[in-house]
Amino acid sequence: MSQPQLSPLELAKLIQEAAADKHAGKPVRIPLKGKTTVADYFVVCEGETDRQVKAIADGILERVREHEDGSWVLIDFDSVLVHIFLPGERSFYDLESLWSTAARRRATS
Known about the structure:
Elements: H1 8-21, E1 25-31, E2 41-46, H2 50-65, E3 72-76, E4 81-85, H3 87-93, H4 95-108
Antiparallel strand pairs: 1-2, 3-4
Helix pairs in contact: 1-2
């Protein structure tokens, strides 16, 4: 039986708690709703070493997997963003068309 979808606030709190469980430094939740369409919240924290940063990220992913579906996963590698979709989600959001249209508009501007 699948769990009910978390609200953005519940998800942000869950992420903040998971980060704290991995001893992340100063985990904070920043509300963004109405300020940007990128996200409803940022959760920002820090680790003392690259190993701890990875452990924090792994802990967050593990905790969120217990509560969220996997219809769209976004992985941010700084200069490259990876979108992994279920087929229906991919066709619904149609990022390929969205971004190719934006590129064509920029080229003609």
